[in-house]
Specification:
Layout (H helix, E strand, L loop, with lengths): L3 H8 L7 E5 L5 H4 L2 H9 L3 E5 L6 H8 L4
Antiparallel strand pairs: 1-2
């Protein structure tokens, strides 16, 4: 992802709960047909975002120590 660090720094304050998100998101079909929603889609970005729980990954400590076992 281009400018990943900036994106992560921008998203972090929102404390987004784990889950799958589609943005922009309409509340229903009627809203999807509205000029305002169509403009949001046109302006972008349009994204499917999966937020996973923040966790320590088992391989993280090993990579810092230089050991792969």
């Amino acid at each position: 992802m281009p400018r990943e660090a900036e994106l992560l720094n921008a998203l972090r304050p929102f404390a987004i709960p784990p889950g799958d998100y589609f943005i922009p998101r309409a509340a229903g079909m009627q809203e999807m047909r509205s000029p305002e929603f169509k403009e949001k889609m046109k302006q972008g970005p349009v994204a499917l975002l999966t937020v996973m729980p923040t966790a320590r990954f088992p391989w993280a400590d090993r990579s810092r120590s230089g050991s792969c076992s």
